[in-house]
Amino acid sequence: MKAAPRILAINGSERDGNTADVLRHAAAHAAGRGVEFEVVDLRHIRMERCGPCGDCNDRTVVCSVGDDIPAVVDKMIAADGIVFAAPVHGFGTASLMQTFIERAGVGYLRFDRPLSNKVAGVISVARRYSAGEVWAQLTVNALLNRMILVGSGFPATVHALHRGDALEDFEGLKNVERLIDRMADMMTLLREHRELTGRDALAAGDVNERVGLPLNELAGVE
């Protein structure tokens, strides 16, 4: 029996609020598609900020700061798809998600892009303003990691102010459902291609996009 496709959602909110409600809605919809849906709440993990070492652009080994980031990265690598979800705080991405992007990306993901060809979805939650800017930032992060981004028609941006408001944004939730449906379909297509051919549908490309590093020299990249 084949294992069900798996989506891992990264919740960048500091609270169990509207973003969590949206992800619970997404999880229920995913279950109807036979997709496992796990949420990592960044507020519950031990996550340090980037330290003062300053050698991130030169190092060729993973970050030495000890916290829970490596365990979350392992979950991302094991998943078929990843949803990045964050609320707007101060007209930008909530600080937990920003810290996670920095720590996971610079510290672990940039060396050989292990998220390449995984399916990505992005959700932002906002009172009214900057939902698009946060959605765009998380989208660019997914593309940087060479993921396969699926759309939902209109972006999956959900509007809310007070707790519970997100569940009243029916258009926003419909876009979230479309996002999950398209992620499920794409994950299935990619899995079928892999089973049929024994390889990914898209080549991962060079080892690392940073030129002049030993990693790339070993791979013949100049």
How many E-type strands? 7
Q: CATH class, anyone? A: Alpha Beta
What characteristic shape results from the CA principal axes? globular
CATH topology: Rossmann fold
CATH superfamily: Flavodoxin domain
Q: Structural class given helices, strands, pairing? A: alpha/beta
Into how many domains do the coordinates divide? 1
- At CATH level 2, the architecture is 3-Layer(aba) Sandwich
Give the C-alpha Rg.
Answer: 18 Å
DSSP summary: helix tally: 6
Q: Give the end-to-end Cα distance, rounded to a whole number of Å.
A: 45 Å
> How much helix is in the residues?
25-40%
Mean of the pLDDT scores? 90
Share of residues in strands: 15-25%
Low-confidence stretches: 218-222
Q: What is the makeup of the main sheet?
A: 7 strands, mixed
Give me the strand/helix succession: EHEHEEHEHEEHH
Pfam families: FMN_red (PF03358)
Domain NADPH-dependent FMN reductase-like: 5-157
Keywords: Flavoprotein, FMN
Organism: Streptomyces prasinosporus
Q: Layout of SSEs?
A:
Blueprint (H helix, E strand, L loop, with lengths): L5 E6 L6 H15 L3 E6 L27 H10 L2 E9 L2 E2 L1 H15 L9 E8 L4 H14 L3 E2 L6 E4 L10 H28 L16 H5 L4
Parallel strand pairs: 1-2, 1-3, 3-5, 5-6, 5-7
Antiparallel strand pairs: 3-4
Helix pairs in contact: 1-5
